[in-house]
Protein backbone atom coordinates (compact mmCIF):
# COMPACT_ATOMS: atom_id res chain seq x y z
CA UNK A 1 0.00 0.00 0.00
CA UNK A 2 1.37 3.41 -0.98
CA UNK A 3 1.40 5.98 1.79
CA UNK A 4 1.68 9.71 1.26
CA UNK A 5 4.23 11.50 3.41
CA UNK A 6 2.81 14.09 5.74
CA UNK A 7 3.94 17.70 5.57
CA UNK A 8 5.94 17.16 8.75
CA UNK A 9 7.72 14.10 7.34
CA UNK A 10 8.57 15.95 4.12
CA UNK A 11 9.93 18.99 5.96
CA UNK A 12 11.89 16.79 8.39
CA UNK A 13 13.45 14.95 5.44
CA UNK A 14 14.47 18.27 3.87
CA UNK A 15 15.78 19.45 7.24
CA UNK A 16 17.92 16.32 7.67
CA UNK A 17 19.43 16.95 4.25
CA UNK A 18 20.19 20.58 5.12
CA UNK A 19 21.57 19.70 8.57
CA UNK A 20 25.01 18.92 7.17
CA UNK A 21 27.19 21.66 5.61
CA UNK A 22 28.56 19.32 2.94
CA UNK A 23 25.06 18.33 1.84
CA UNK A 24 24.13 22.02 1.75
CA UNK A 25 27.14 22.71 -0.46
CA UNK A 26 26.17 19.77 -2.68
CA UNK A 27 22.62 20.99 -3.08
CA UNK A 28 23.83 24.50 -3.90
CA UNK A 29 26.32 23.14 -6.44
CA UNK A 30 23.60 21.05 -8.08
CA UNK A 31 21.29 24.05 -8.01
CA UNK A 32 23.75 25.74 -10.34
CA UNK A 33 24.16 22.76 -12.69
CA UNK A 34 24.06 18.96 -12.83
CA UNK A 35 27.48 17.39 -12.22
CA UNK A 36 29.43 14.17 -12.13
CA UNK A 37 30.68 12.89 -8.75
CA UNK A 38 34.37 13.41 -9.57
CA UNK A 39 33.69 17.03 -10.45
CA UNK A 40 31.64 17.55 -7.30
CA UNK A 41 34.41 16.03 -5.13
CA UNK A 42 36.95 18.39 -6.71
CA UNK A 43 34.66 21.41 -6.36
CA UNK A 44 33.91 20.70 -2.70
CA UNK A 45 37.44 19.54 -1.89
CA UNK A 46 36.35 16.26 -0.30
CA UNK A 47 37.14 12.60 -0.97
CA UNK A 48 35.00 10.66 -3.38
CA UNK A 49 34.09 8.21 -0.61
CA UNK A 50 32.81 10.99 1.61
CA UNK A 51 30.98 12.57 -1.32
CA UNK A 52 29.38 9.23 -2.18
CA UNK A 53 27.94 8.92 1.33
CA UNK A 54 26.42 12.40 1.16
CA UNK A 55 25.02 11.83 -2.33
CA UNK A 56 23.46 8.58 -1.13
CA UNK A 57 21.78 10.48 1.72
CA UNK A 58 20.41 13.11 -0.68
CA UNK A 59 19.24 10.38 -3.04
CA UNK A 60 17.53 8.50 -0.20
CA UNK A 61 15.82 11.76 0.83
CA UNK A 62 14.55 12.09 -2.75
CA UNK A 63 16.29 15.40 -3.34
CA UNK A 64 18.74 14.33 -6.04
CA UNK A 65 18.56 11.81 -8.86
CA UNK A 66 21.11 10.06 -11.01
CA UNK A 67 21.16 10.30 -14.78
CA UNK A 68 23.27 7.77 -16.67
CA UNK A 69 25.42 9.43 -19.33
CA UNK A 70 27.24 6.69 -21.20
CA UNK A 71 29.41 4.90 -18.64
CA UNK A 72 29.24 7.79 -16.17
CA UNK A 73 26.54 8.95 -13.79
CA UNK A 74 25.51 12.55 -13.43
CA UNK A 75 23.67 13.96 -10.42
CA UNK A 76 21.01 16.63 -10.51
CA UNK A 77 18.25 18.00 -8.32
CA UNK A 78 15.20 15.77 -8.39
CA UNK A 79 12.94 18.70 -9.26
CA UNK A 80 13.61 22.21 -10.56
CA UNK A 81 11.45 23.60 -7.75
CA UNK A 82 14.14 22.53 -5.27
CA UNK A 83 16.51 25.15 -6.71
CA UNK A 84 13.88 27.84 -6.17
CA UNK A 85 13.12 26.47 -2.69
CA UNK A 86 16.79 26.69 -1.72
CA UNK A 87 16.96 30.27 -2.98
CA UNK A 88 13.75 31.26 -1.18
CA UNK A 89 14.75 29.54 2.06
CA UNK A 90 18.15 31.23 2.08
CA UNK A 91 16.60 34.62 1.33
CA UNK A 92 13.98 34.17 4.06
CA UNK A 93 16.54 33.20 6.70
CA UNK A 94 18.82 36.09 5.74
CA UNK A 95 15.87 38.49 5.78
CA UNK A 96 14.91 37.46 9.29
CA UNK A 97 18.34 37.82 10.87
CA UNK A 98 21.47 37.60 8.75
CA UNK A 99 23.88 37.93 11.68
CA UNK A 100 22.58 34.96 13.70
CA UNK A 101 24.16 31.54 13.88
CA UNK A 102 22.56 28.36 15.11
CA UNK A 103 24.22 27.11 18.30
CA UNK A 104 25.69 23.63 18.27
CA UNK A 105 23.29 20.91 19.35
CA UNK A 106 25.56 20.06 22.30
CA UNK A 107 25.52 23.66 23.46
CA UNK A 108 21.78 24.20 23.94
CA UNK A 109 20.16 21.01 22.73
CA UNK A 110 18.53 22.66 19.71
CA UNK A 111 19.04 22.55 15.97
Automatic annotation (TrEMBL):
Report domain HTH arsR-type positions: 3-97
Its GO biological process annotations read: response to cadmium ion; response to lead ion
Please give the Gene Ontology molecular function terms for this protein: cadmium ion sensor activity; DNA binding; DNA-binding transcription factor activity; lead ion binding
Family annotation (CDD domains): HTH_ARSR
Q: Which InterPro entries match?
A: ArsR-like_HTH, HTH_ArsR_DNA-bd_dom, HTH_Metal-responsive_Reg, WH-like_DNA-bd_sf, WH_DNA-bd_sf
Question: What PROSITE patterns has UniProt attached to this entry?
Answer: HTH_ARSR_2 (PS50987)
Q: Which NCBIfam families match?
A: HTH_metalloreg
Question: What's this protein's name?
Answer: Winged helix-turn-helix transcriptional regulator
